[in-house]
Amino acid sequence: MEVAKTENVTRTFKAGDVETQALRGVSIAIERGEFTALVGPSGSGKTTLLQLLGCLDQPSSGRVFIDGKDVTALSRDQRADMRRGSIGFIFQFFALIPTLSAWENVEMPLILTAQPPEKRRERVEYLLEAVGMRARAHHRPDQLSGGEQQRVAIARALATNPAVILADEPTANLDSANGSQVMETMLRLNQESGVTFIFATHDPRVMRYARRIITLRDGLVAEEQAAA
Question: What is the DSSP letter of 1?
Answer without folding.
Answer: -
